[in-house]
Batch of 2 targets.
Target 1
Amino acid sequence: MLSLNGTSFLDNSLYGVSRGVVQQHRRVAPPMVVVASVSSNGRAGDRNVSVLVETSLKEIRDASPAPPADKDSKSKVTGGIGDVYGEDTATEDQSITPWTVSVASGYPLLRDPHYNKGLAFTEKEKDAHYLRGLLPPVVVSQELQVKKMMANIRQYQVPLQRYMAMMDLQERNERLFYKLLIDHVEELLPVVYTPTVGEACQKYGSIFRQPQGLFISLKEKGKILEVLKNWPQQKIQVIVVTDGERILGLGDLGCQARHHLLGMGIPVGKLSLYTALGGIRPSACLPVTIDVGTNNEKLLNDEFYIGLRQRRATGKEYAELIDEFMSAVKQTYGEKVLIQFEDFANHNAFDLLAKYGPTHLVFNDDIQGTASVVLAGLIAALKLVGGTLAEHTFLFLGAGEAGTGIAELIALEMSKQTGAPVDETRKKIWMVDSKGLITRSRMEGLQHFKRPWAHEHGPVTNLVDAVKAIKPTVLIGSSGAGRTFTKEVVEAMATFNEKPVVLALSNPTSQSECTAEEAYMWSEGRAIFASGSPFDPVEYDGKVYASGQANNAYIFPGLGLGLIISGAIRVHDDMLLAASEALAAQVTEENLESGLIYPPFSNIRKISAKIAADVAAKAYELGLATRLPQPENLVAYAESCMYSPAYRCYR
Ligand SMILES: O=C([O-])CC(=O)C(=O)O
Ligand SMILES: [Mg+2]
């Protein structure tokens, strides 16, 4: 262990670098425990920590005891609090030279969310890390902390208060936050994710918090490479990026809401799930908000708005900023970093995916993740309603990213199953947009992503008439418009289907096309229903109906893990199909009997490992994997790579 007294350590000429922050550090009373190294390019990496140290990896190794045998720290340089990677999963590339990491002890240690354990520091740790007197005498287990925090959170009746309590915890004690989220995933998912995150993005305006990700605005044009260097972590594996133009079904939230945290609400929320549900270590996740302005008048006129106060840049200006970002990311983190596009507006989302799909490891959650989760639900639903996919007829309300993305994946799967060309299988899928049924006669005015769904039919101007005309067996809401599956619509579905499949996908709950209660009531309890945001079980006619959550949160964490563990360099549609099939395979007879077409979220880490294994297997099969040789048991390998939120012992 390289454990040095701060003052003498800084005076030691072996460790040559000293910058302004070092001076600042000298004034901090408690000595420091430091684990340090710099990247091979000699660049001091971590501008946010209080000490920057330049030395070679070898010097640290020499100064370190033999690595302990436990799995967590295997073959890594360890020292004092935290190792040079800062986290512990096998998803790390052991060959890279690490970034600078320095870790404070004493008072700053209690303020560092990555290492803070609160009341769980042991007596030995209190002595070794200058904590004595800074904490009350009790030493509690992480389990007891979880119990206490859950009791605190349950005291709040208002979801936004629970959300804030969770965000506070994340900023205070990251491992406890993830332990809570993992151990109580079903209860806490609606708190840190949809619907509450959407409400938070819209409503919360008064509390200042720490920024939690990178803001890249037009002001940073020409400097994005430098901006990325300001982020404290170097080994990034997943980036979730949004430009805020279509947040959930809520529209343009610009740089979003009115304070720093919420500017990042969606990317931060998604990445929390990458960690909790998919086991990607937190320090490998980078949330990014691209700010090119907003067309939301309310925000533009809001004196507290934190984003660029201008209308959205478009065309060349927009494309150049994104292009600079994409290049800078690849240059900084290499070609195996996964970039997830989230909540871009339709007019950019498809183009960005088409443009960067061939050159980067990119994934659009709203087009591809939603598609994969819905296909999984449909595969499971077939066991209840009978028939093959190709024997069903699909009608979508909403022909944007989610709708056309899902439709395309269904058409691909049908084609795979029947051998018919995709052009043919698409004919079983119909779409209604704001102008009515999409038909060939409307072809000229249609955006390119809607055209494959324009079939021969006379004009139909609204959903009810479309339902009556097409007689779909499956009705899918991807409109972002709440309460659009009216009584008449659901009743019509129930007249010609014994078990109508009704999926109300739009988020958050306020935008859901109908509620679970409405779906069951209006179909006399016969609907197979799932929704993007969760609904509590409902009672109808003396029977309790639970409904599943058709949300991409089932897919992206496992898909991301699979891409990372295989070192994949591109996302392929077959990986999405593999993810769908893996998820559908996790739906048990028991789930189906109670009307659920998704497995419970309580098993999500196991499910993610299975999805990851099948996605990775597909990456190897397609020759897109770079991590060789292929592990023999991919499920076991995926599981062994997952981040654990258990506290580590600081020696
Ligand atoms: O965030 C969610 O809950 C699902 C999603 O991607 C969206 O609605 O845009
Ligand atoms: Mg989304």
Note: The pocket of magnesium ion (ligand 2) is lined by residues 342-343, 365-366 (CB under 6 Å).
Target 2
Amino acid sequence: MTEALSDLVRSMPKAELHMHIEGSLEPELIFALAERNGVTLPYASVEDLRRAYAFTDLQSFLDIYYAGASVLQTERDFYDMTWAYLERAHADNVLHTEIFFDPQTHTERGIGFPIVIGGIHRALTDAQKEWGLSASLILCFLRHLSEAEAFATLEEAMPHRDKFIGVGLDSSERGNPPEKFERVFARCRELGLHLVAHAGEEGPPEYIYTALDKLHVERIDHGVRCLEDPVLTARLAREQVALTVCPLSNIKLRVFDRIHDHNILELLDAGIAATVNSDDPAYFGGYVNDNYVALFESLPLTRDHAYRLARNSFAAAFIDEEAKAAYLRQVDDYFATA
Ligand SMILES: Nc1ncnc2[nH]cnc12
Ligand SMILES: [Zn+2]
């Protein structure tokens, strides 16, 4: 990749649509929060913790990710974590970000829902004031927990309905198909919430079908396994269902062996509205620009692909049509002069 293309990709305006705020907790912040809250960690040092980030699959990552999140206790902790991510996003020229949070990871430990959403949301408000960075929240249900627990979480969330725009489905995919949450998503749909779900990351293409047909999601998170099914691939392209692809995550969790084997180019060539995102940047080796650069360094991606990826990121965002058109114009202007 030329230096010019790398600079172009780094500085182009972009939206991020798939990142878990708990996955932005850097080891240094985990240690700082542990100390602030008097929590003893089973790791001697930051380096020791970082060494534990050697994952073999999704579950091996999730075990460490949930352990890391246990240092979050106060509203200020949630604020500090979110603010640290927003600074990184701003530095990567992210103009709009849709952030996942996992309330059940915290409410299960006795941390109140208002503390979680209050701290995260206050940071979003400050980023809007400070940089004009637009950010919204998507509440994720943990799919390894029950339907009843998801309904209980939705109930707890309703007094805060003004602070989140949609719901998603994350955690252990295999054995927890989307249809387990069909009734929860039906209720969320009635409430006017946007709907997304992780599907086809480790799970089979069937999970992408059921996310679309039983949950009625508007985007698929990951979805990279769709290419195993040509009928599904054609449908995603025809219906322009966006995929929020997370390349470095896919390598760390061994969905693909090497970044050179990543299928984003095939997805784009098939006409799918793929986007590039960081998933859990503190755990997978980088923020959104690191994901773009890793792809552009390893695959024959061009300036035109960069343009399409930037456009796709805003086109798939849950924002009003006027704001969307303004962002898309900004991308066009950037590429007209860069
Ligand atoms: N990549 C991922 N897949 C499923 N659940 C997650 N929670 C955080 N990151 C996740
Ligand atoms: Zn994810």
Note: Residues 20, 23, 58, 65, 170-171, 198, 201, 249, 279-280 surround adenine (ligand 1) (CB under 6 Å).
